[in-house]
Amino acid sequence: MKLPFVLLASTALAFIPGQTFAQASGQGVIELDEVTVEGTREGQGGPISANGYVATSSRTATKTDTPLLETPQSISTITQQQLDDRKPQALLDAVAYTPGARVGSYGFDPRYDAFTIRGIEMTYTGVFRDGLRQVNSPNGLFRLEPYGLEGISILRGPAASIYGASSTGGIVDLISKRPTFLPFREIEIQTGSYGRLQGNFDLSGPVNADNTLFYRLTGLVRDAGTQIDAVQDDRVFVAPAFTWKPNDATTFTVLGEYMDSNTGGSAAYVNNYELDANGVSTGRVIGATRVYEGDPRYNDYGQKQGRIGYEFEHRFSDMFTLRQRVRFSALGTNQEYYSLGAGSGLVREQNWGVVTDTHLESRVRAGAVDHTVLAGLDVSRLSYRNKLAFGAVPIGADPDSIYQRDEQTQTLTGIYVQDQIKWQNWRLTLGGRHDWLTSEFETNGAEFDQNDSKFTGRAALGYVTEFGLAPYVSYGTSFTPNPGTVLNGGVAEPTTGEQIEVGVKYDLPGYNASLRAAIFDLRQDGAVVYQVVEGLNRQVQLDVRSRGFEVEGVASLAEGLNLQASYSYTDAEILKLTPETEGKQLSSVPNHMASLWLDYTVQEGLARGLGIAGGVRYVGSSFGDNLNRPIIENDARTYLDAAIRYDLENINPSLKGMRFQVNATNLLDEDGQVCTSNYCYWDEGRKVIASLRYRW
């Protein structure tokens, strides 16, 4: 039987999207206003403070207001201006210029935001929303709408000491749009490739005269096709938010979202397989054809998702601040698909999740030493239920012909303590957390209970010089349960990991620019992955070691020039999977990746307000399976992106607030074959989107 979805949530190569079950079986000082990406108060809810492309502080690494220069761990930031300039249409587009982030491993597939950082899968356990874990189930992954974001913080390396269950590769914190103090109104229309038509709106400002209540309402409606005729990309999205700020010490923000989206149940192409001497398939792929494997008459993948939660902050004094975040989320999926040779299938899944985090921040001075102590408790609970139906008929599975039913409830409770110690130029961070896991899993009537506990920690030391240079060293561990997974007659043990990192950060004096570099050595044990064993697709556990080097430079300079550049080297080696793969390179993880984005806006003359941007992304060669067979090696490739925009008020003052913009990704239409975990796909081709925006 073939399944075009995942049977499990894991932390490394947990699934193969688009694939079926059997297949994957001057020297001038820059004077820029600091922009705090957050509408109510700096510091609430994981804000990003930034000058253009350059972020100055973020809460993601420590849950406290810590300058990025003084944060002894590798972190990248995608600011609001970067989002505005590049107009990403998915999370993969947004992180594509981030060092160490591998997007496109599964070619074109709009159903999931599947990517790795430092060779470690981020899809299930690495994506957070507003500092809280985004609860996902095997086929219930929340879809991201980038238009609803203020920014993205990407912390590389383990952060379980304060976040609990999370990827060894790091934390990708998606920061929702929040109400603004001043009135802000925006509407936009978009059109582009594959019949795309989209309308956006974003409205915000104070509600009452005494400026204690603020609102924001963000949304869009989209009707669009894709490069596969049978796969659409339709969406309705709305995100209301309210902030109550009765005084300077107290802030209460409510964040909500509802999204109804529809795309294709399968985005796979027919693959050719190696044959033995008797003409029987060995199960080893030798390449993809251009024949679409699905059927447009039975290929809808509808998903409805919603979330509602709040963020509360109260400052008792300069010493004590209490914060609490709570979110309830739910989604439902209905996936139809057809696979050549196996007939059709139907997957229905629902999940519900509650996540809370409460912590007290204490700032204490003991002699010449400053302490910022964080003590917290967080609890998360996931429940999901799915039904799988398969039919041998050409089109349409019988919903009553259930092949498999799964149900699971998983609860994770953690307590944590962190101390950020500041003495002269030294910065020492020490943190520890203990988690308790309980799980009840039932599959086709068989029940599996699990109780486990784990301690995780982090220690980091940095030195901040007077001239903006800050070397550091850090060590951290991770712990991640594996929901929906049965191995060897029992539930899989949690995935664990550890990393040591040595790096340096440099903020260039007199310039709004920063440089970051890091060397890392990371190990992850017990990640659940798909592997073809004796011709069948099986779930096995993987141990992997990833070592490498990353460097990133970001700047917003005088005269309208912005740039972002990165390079990463990653060596991801399989330590344990199957005997024939030990010592091999992890599939689809290239050794070399690099990117450069330049954006220039004309400041004077007739062309004032004209912005031109270009980007190049290089992805080095990699292996297409964990056996490292040369026949499906992924060739190195280069993608070109571009953008042009113009503020129409420069033509006529009456057009103030109007901007015309065109963005193109993969401008040269590089659509080569890419193989991952013994299955091959095709790259997403060129996509062009034109927009007309009005702000007032």
Could you characterize the architecture of this molecule?
The structure is a single chain. Helix content is 2%, strand content 59%. It is mostly beta strands. It is globular, with a radius of gyration of 24 Å. 52% of the residues are buried. The N terminus is likely disordered. Belongs to the TonB-dependent receptor family. InterPro entries: Beta-barrel_TonB (IPR000531), Beta-barrel_TonB_sf (IPR036942), Plug_dom (IPR012910), Plug_dom_sf (IPR037066), TonB-dep_rcpt-like (IPR039426), TonB_sidphr_rcpt (IPR010105). This is TonB-dependent siderophore receptor. Its main location: membrane.
Radius of gyration: 24 Å
Mean pLDDT: 90
For the report, how would you describe the main beta sheet?
22 strands, antiparallel, barrel
**Structure class:** mainly beta
The level of helicity is under 10%
User: Alpha-carbon distance between the termini?
Assistant: 55 Å
Q: How many H/I helical runs?
A: 3
How large a portion of the residues is in β-strands, by DSSP E? Answer: over 45%
Pfam family, one: Plug
Protein name: TonB-dependent siderophore receptor
Signal peptide: 1-22
Family: Belongs to the TonB-dependent receptor family.
Write the layout of secondary structure elements.
Elements: E1 35-37, E2 48-51, E3 54-58, E4 66-67, E5 75-78, H1 80-86, H2 91-95, E6 101-102, E7 116-117, E8 120-121, E9 127-129, E10 132-133, E11 149-156, H3 160-163, E12 170-176, E13 184-192, E14 196-206, E15 213-223, E16 234-247, E17 250-264, E18 269-275, E19 281-292, E20 300-315, E21 320-339, E22 343-366, E23 369-391, E24 402-423, E25 426-443, E26 446-463, E27 469-480, E28 486-487, E29 490-491, E30 495-507, E31 513-533, E32 536-557, E33 561-576, E34 592-601, E35 610-619, E36 637-647, E37 658-665, E38 673-676, E39 679-682, E40 687-695
Parallel strand pairs: 9-12
Antiparallel strand pairs: 1-2, 2-3, 3-4, 5-11, 6-7, 7-8, 9-10, 11-12, 13-14, 13-40, 14-15, 15-16, 16-17, 17-20, 18-19, 20-21, 21-22, 22-23, 23-24, 24-25, 25-26, 26-27, 27-30, 28-29, 30-31, 31-32, 32-33, 33-34, 34-35, 35-36, 36-37, 37-40, 38-39
